[in-house]
Structures are given as structure tokens and as C-alpha cells.
Design a protein that fits this description.
Blueprint: H1 6-10, H2 13-26, E1 34-38, H3 44-52, E2 57-62, H4 65-74, E3 79-82, E4 96-100, H5 109-119, E5 125-131, H6 137-148, H7 152-155, H8 167-174, E6 180-192, H9 197-203, H10 207-211, H11 216-233, E7 242-254
Parallel strand pairs: 1-2, 1-4, 2-3, 4-5
Antiparallel strand pairs: 5-7, 6-7
Helix pairs in contact: 2-3, 6-11
The chain binds S-adenosylmethionine.
S-adenosylmethionine (SAM) is lined by residues 4, 16, 20, 39-41, 45, 62-64, 67, 84-86, 100-102, 105-106, 205.
């Protein structure tokens, strides 16, 4: 598995931060004692959780050595745990489990999400944000190129199917264990600058596991094909900027 590149990921730090903060702002909890940020990445959002609830013990959990190294470098006083969310269990019963843009990498939601919800204190909260962009050209065209070309045999095992279900599926999955659920979706019309900014975006997330299977000349061919799709799906506007619409789903489950 290719590790994450924190520098590439943080190129769009502002766009990635906004939904994380909007989720935090909607969480209705007085004074949580124990908070876990699952799939914490570079830790910038874990630090915001600590700022918002300074008396809480806050720990960031992630399976990427690169991301955790960046997190512990930038926020040395916070607690960082290396773990795979599929098997992770909290050391202390949490008041709040928070996760921004991480569960799209752990596809078995039917099992994983109720299991995690079960670990939370009664009266506690499970707050997550999931990107819903797998069917958009930015992501779908990557899978199409990988499946339709001479690289199919090598790339197909590394293609991730759409991991994110619909809001009603999550409602039915989580509501048997909750007092109430607050859910919403937002489409951010992200204004990006420069040439092929959507390529730069996916270089920080979904592209590396596929590109790492190819030689450098094959990578160039792959990217050229991808760029031609991006040019028609996300054309530059009159001012030279590119609009990259991005839908995200938010779920706050009150136990
Ligand atoms: C898109 S980043 C989000 C990072 C951070 N939450 C943020 O919003 O900036 C996804 C993170 O999930 C982590 N991740 C993916 N699969 C994971 C797993 N199975 N266990 C733990 N962390 C995982 C990745 O290492 C990565 O840091």
C-alpha cells in the first residue's frame, strides 16, 4: 500500500478544512472527557478538536506513518496512535468519536460503523463526514482508464469500488443504536487555481495507489489520458479558475 504524502494532501488544506469545521460546529456536546479523531491524517483537525474542548483528552488515530509523523511534528503535545481502524478499539470509553474524510478508505461500513458506535459511552456522539465523489468524473474516470487500458490486469486489483452508501442506508444502519441522528449533505463549489488542479487534488488521495503500479513512462500516459477527461469535465472558467464541485455527507449520531 502506498503511503500518503502530507505535502500533496495539504495543498488543498483550506478546502479540506471547511467541512471538518462545519461538522465540529454542529456537534452538541458540553464537556467531553475523551475524544478520538479517527483517520486523523496530518492532525490539523485533531488540534482544532483540542482547542474546542481543551479539557478533553484528545487522541488522533491513523494507519499512515507519513501522516502521523507530520502530525507529531506539527502538534507534539497531542497524542497520536498508529492503528488500522478496521481493528482499532479505544483504550478509554469515548464521549466523542469524530472522523473527517477517512471512512471512505475503510469500505465495510455495515460492520465497522456499528462496532465503533458500540464503543462510545451512552450519551456520547459519533460524528463523521464522508466524501460522496466516487461517481464524479474526477474519480470515475480514473477507474475507467484503469479498467479500459493495457494496464487493466495490473491496476484492476487496486481499484476501489464506491465505498460510500446513501444517507438513508446510514440512517437504517445506525438508528437502532441511537437516540437521534442529524444528517445532511453539502456540495462545495470549490474554486481551484492553476492548471489541472483536479489532478493535483487526486494526486493527494486516490491516484497514488494506482500510479505506483506503473513505470514512469506508463504513469505519464495514464496522466495524459486523465488530463484529457479533466479538461472536458472541469474546464477553466473565464477568469482562469476551475470549479470542482464536491459533495460531502455529514452524520452526527447521538447515542
Ligand atoms: C483523506 S485523509 C483525512 C485526514 C484528516 N481526517 C483530514 O480531514 O484532514 C484520510 C486519512 O485516513 C487514513 N486511513 C485510511 N484508511 C485507514 C485505516 N484503515 N486505518 C486508519 N487510518 C486510515 C489515511 O492514512 C489518511 O490519513
Amino acid at each position: 500500500m502506498t503511503d500518503w504524502n502530507p505535502t500533496q494532501y495539504l495543498r488543498f488544506g483550506n478546502e479540506r478544512l471547511r467541512p471538518a469545521i462545519e461538522l465540529i460546529d454542529r456537534i452538541n456536546i458540553e464537556s467531553p472527557k475523551t475524544i478520538y479523531d479517527l483517520g486523523c491524517g496530518t492532525g490539523s483537525i485533531t488540534a482544532i478538536l483540542k482547542e474546542k474542548w481543551p479539557r478533553a483528552t484528545v487522541a488522533g488515530v491513523d494507519a499512515s506513518p507519513n501522516m502521523l509523523e507530520q502530525a507529531s511534528q506539527d502538534y507534539p503535545t497531542l497524542t497520536w496512535q498508529y492503528a488500522d481502524l478496521n481493528s482499532w478499539e479505544p483504550e478509554i470509553e469515548p464521549d466523542l468519536i469524530y472522523s473527517n474524510a477517512a471512512f471512505q478508505w475503510t469500505p465495510h461500513h455495515q460492520v465497522l460503523l456499528p462496532r465503533l458506535l458500540e464503543t462510545i459511552k451512552d450519551g456520547g456522539i459519533f460524528a463523521i463526514q464522508l466524501p460522496k465523489n466516487w461517481r464524479e468524473p474526477s474519480h470515475a474516470s480514473i477507474c475507467e482508464i484503469a479498467r479500459e487500458t493495457q494496464w487493466k490486469d495490473r491496476l484492476e486489483p487496486h481499484i476501489m469500488e464506491n465505498p460510500v452508501a446513501e444517507p438513508l442506508d446510514y440512517y437504517d444502519l445506525l438508528s437502532p443504536f441511537c437516540k437521534s441522528i442529524d444528517m445532511w449533505e453539502t456540495t462545495y463549489m470549490q474554486v481551484l487555481t492553476g492548471d489541472y488542479p483536479v489532478l493535483e487534488w487526486t494526486k493527494g488521495t486516490v491516484l497514488p495507489p494506482l500510479l505506483s503500479q506503473l513505470s514512469s513512462s506508463e504513469q505519464k500516459d495514464f496522466i495524459d489520458k486523465y488530463k484529457s477527461t479533466l479538461a472536458s469535465s472541469y474546464p477553466k472558467r473565464n477568469d482562469g479558475n476551475t470549479i470542482f464541485p464536491f459533495t460531502r455527507m455529514f452524520i452526527i449520531a447521538y447515542k
